[in-house]
Amino acid sequence: TGTLQSMPRSEARTRLRNLGAKVAGSVSPNTTRVVAGAGAGAKLARAEVLEIPVLSETDFLTFLGSHERA
Questions:
Q1: Are 37 and 1 in contact (CB under 8 A)?
Q2: Calpha distance 44→54 (Å, rounded)
Q3: What is the pLDDT along the chain (70 residues), one digit of tens a residue?
Q4: What secondary structure does DSSP assign to the chain, as a single string?
Q5: How far apart are CA 70 and CA 54, in angstroms?
Q6: In DSSP terms, which residues pair with 56 in a beta bridge?
Q7: CB of 1 within 8 A of CB of 36?
């Protein structure tokens, strides 16, 4: 949710799907992680209410770097 400074949303979605993730457009009790970029709003608030772990953009990039193979 929000805007990532390092890549467009479509690239983030593709990279996550390549790792086997299911990328959703909404936050629900079934959501396991939320990536929060600049300007994150209602989806971030919903994740916090549901106590879903939230990754910052920096955490997200670290995650990708440790899971993607060159």
A1: yes
A2: 8
A3: 999 999 999 999 999 999 999 999 999 999 999 999 999 999 999 999 999 999 999 999 999 999 997 5
A4: --B-SSS-HHHHHHHHHHTTPPP-SS--TT---EEE-BT--HHHHHHHHTT--EEEHHHHHHHHHHH---
A5: 26
A6: 36
A7: yes
Q: What angle do CA 8, 38, 29 make, to 5 degrees?
A: 90
Amino acid letter for position 57? E
The token duo for 59 is 């955490």
The pLDDT, as a whole number, for residue 37 is 95
Phi, psi of 55, rounded to the nearest 5 degrees: -100, 135
Q: Which residue do the tokens 């479509």 mark?
A: 10
Side chain identity at residue 9, one-letter code: R
